[in-house]
Structures are given as structure tokens and as C-alpha cells.
Amino acid sequence: MARPGLFRSIFGRVTMSALLVSLLSTLALFLVVRQIVDNDARAMLAREVDTDLAGLADIYVSAGREDLKARIADRFAVERQDGERVWYLLARDNGDRIAGNLTRWPRIAPNISEARFVTLADGERMFARATQLGPNMRLVVGRSDYRGQALLARLAVAFATAGALIAGLSLVAGHFAARRLRNRVEAVNATFAAVRAGHIEARVPGAGDSDELTELATNTNDMLDQVERLIEAQRAVSDQTAHEIRTPLMHLDTRILRAMEATRDDMLLQTLERSRAEIRSVVRLLDSLLDIAGTQAMRGDMRGLAEVSLSDIAENLADLYGASAEELGIGFHARIAPGIRLRADAMQMMRLMSNLLDNGFKYVPSGGSVSLQLSAGPRIIVEDDGDGIPAADRERIFERYVRLDGAADGGHGLGLALALAIAQRHGLTLHVEDAAPGARFVVQPEDES
């Protein structure tokens, strides 16, 4: 079974979820820190502006307007090392500039000493506070926020780098953790696959600490132990049942045979002979039912199987049925590829082919033909040119006790059921097709169906 894709795999989704959580956590932390830094930078700007404004207001109160203009001019003469820009505007109430480097009054209220960020006409942003110095005199002081913005930019770079590092570490850690979990789950899946392939003794190896997956492995092994015990118990019951039923029937057959030897009554002899025939029929029925049940119980169980030559089995059957076909006046053709091998029970594969051939000979009248084909795969085809099988019956004929009209003998309708059970035990399928005319039985691997 192919591995699911990244987003279909539970381990891939867990890894991606961990990555997403780490990235979202990093982003949330960045936003919180950014807000704190932005608030601190704004508070620092406010303190600088307020301190400068208070100093200039004291100068105006103590020394007058001209001294204030001189002190504002002094501010421009000082070169700031931090790269920040400063703005001043001393103006009348109508906005006429008296001193400073602002050409017009910004949208900020001096009568309430408003302080906020203001965007200037050239698009630059400043934090400013305005105040009313006296009748017909107002002052605004502003500072740029280069340091705060630079700090925020560095902070963004730092968090982006940390986020990338965290994402990488999360992916690596998630990959190794998911791979370890995947390997442990795949050990369970591999065990089930081995059991399906016939290795009923397969078990999940113990893994890791006492966690949920270890508990899963333990429960899986316990379940497989129980299944193996049930299979063995079924085999034992089947064998015991066969012995307990077959033995008295054979004893009864022996007593009938002795009775036949002791009598000279022709009618009684005929009755006893029919009784023996019915006993043998019951024994065959019992054997067939037990064969079907036992074969179905061993479906996928590879124990007791060995590499066998299907070509040799088919050749031997072809020789046997070829001789029978001549006596029945039926044409028989065999096309058997050499070297076809399969891990199988040789006797069961012979039973499979012979049951299909028996079915073909049973429903083909004298003058008809039957063919046996064996090719790589393996692919086994038994075809006849008889009346064929109606479409409605092509699945039903593999059920127990089903016999179509026109059968030439008094069988129990179990031959095809046993053939299907044998095919399934070996990982093969069996179906019937229209041969136009006649029927074509095809045996092939399950993955080719």
C-alpha cells in the first residue's frame, strides 16, 4: 500500500500543525513586543518634547519673546548625533510665523496642550505638542520618530530570523518525531500485511516506552494470538469431526459388505449395494465440506506451502484427461507454458485444476471440446464449448450445493466451491466468462482482477 501524501498523512498534518502553531506563537509574541516597544518609544518622545517645551515656555515667561526666538535658533545650531529631526514653530494666534522651521501651524490644538503624531505637508511624521504661551502667542515643538522606527525594523528582522529558525527546528523535530511514530505504526501495518500474506505467526515487535502505540502493539499481538488459536481450534475440530463421523460410516459400510457376503437374496443385495453407494456419497460429501472449510480457514496462511511447478502439475493432468477424453469422444487441448511456478500446496492446486476440468467434461456432450491453458501470472484457463453458463448464474455456481440443470452425474455441487476456496487460499481469484459458445473459467492473481 502506497504511503499517503503529506497533507493526507496524520503525521504530516501533526508536523504542519506544530509548525503553524510555532509560527503563530512567534507572530503573536512579535505583535505584543512591537506594541510595548512602540508605546515606550512614544512615551520617550513625549518626555523629550514636553521637557523641551517646558524649558522654552519658562524662557518666554522669564525673558520674553526675543530671548525665546534666540533659544529656538540655538536649537537648530546643535547637530544631533542620533539623526533625529526637530521642529519648532512660534506663531501668533492667526498662524503667522514668528520663529521656527515649520511654515504653517499643524493641525494640533494649543489651547489644550494637545500632543500626538502629525503628518507634515512633505509626508514626514512627527510627534508634537502645542501650548498657548500667552495672548496671541502659541508654540509647537516636534520630534521625528526615526529611532523608534529603526528599533521596530530591527525588532521585525530579529523576530523574522527567530521565526525562521523556530520553523526550521519545528520542521526538523516534527519530521523526526513523525518518522519515529510512522515507523511504529508501519510496524503494525506490516504485521497485518504479513498475516494477510499468510504468515499467521507474524507479530508486532515491541517498541519504545509504555505509551499508546506500545499498547496498540500489545493488543494487536494478543488479537493475532487469539486468531491463531481459533484457526488451530477450527482445524482440530474439523479433523476430529471428520474422524468421528467417517469412522462409524466406514464401520457401517463394512457390516453391509459382510451382510452382502452372507446372503444370496438378489433384491437384498441390490438394496445393500445402494446403501453402500449412499454411504460412500455421504463420506465424499463430508470430505468435500471439510476440505472447503479447512481451505477457507487457511486463506492467506502460507504455512505448509512450498514452491511447486504448476507446469508439471498441468502436464500430468493433461495426460490423464487426454486419455479420458478419447474414451468419451471429447476433444481435449492443452497449452501449458513451461517453468510456471507458485508457492502453493501441490495437491490443492491439482485439485483446483481437476475440479475445473471435471466440470468442463461434465457439461460438454460427446463431440465437444475442453481446453486447459497455463501461462505466466500464473493464469489458468479451462474452457469448453458446451451450453455455457447463464449470466445470472455465474456467481451463484461457486456457492455450495449449487448444480445447474443438465449435470451428468449425481454430485453434490461442491466442486466449484472447493476450487474457489483453494484459489483464495493461494491469493488467486476464480471467475467464469462467456466463451461464446461454452464457459471459460479463469484463475489469476488477485491484483490482476
Automatic annotation (TrEMBL):
Lineage: superkingdom: Bacteria
Chief location: membrane
Positions of the Histidine kinase domain: 240-449
InterPro entries for this protein: HAMP_dom, HATPase_C_sf, HATPase_dom, His_kinase_dom, HisK_dim/P_dom, HisK_dim/P_sf, Sig_transdc_His_kin-like_C, TCS_sensor_his_kinase
Spans traversing the lipid bilayer: 151-174
Pfam families tied to this protein: HATPase_c
Molecular function (Gene Ontology), one example: phosphorelay sensor kinase activity
Location of the protein in the cell: Membrane
This protein's GO CC annotations: plasma membrane
Catalyzed chemical reaction(s): ATP + protein L-histidine = ADP + protein N-phospho-L-histidine
Root EC class: transferase
Keywords, sorted A to Z: Kinase, Membrane, Phosphoprotein, Transferase, Transmembrane, Transmembrane helix, Two-component regulatory system
Domain HAMP: residue ranges: 179-232
Enzyme Commission (EC) number: 2.7.13.3
Classification via PANTHER family: HISTIDINE KINASE, SENSOR HISTIDINE KINASE YKOH
Name by which UniProt lists this protein: histidine kinase
Organism encoding this protein: Sphingobium lactosutens DS20
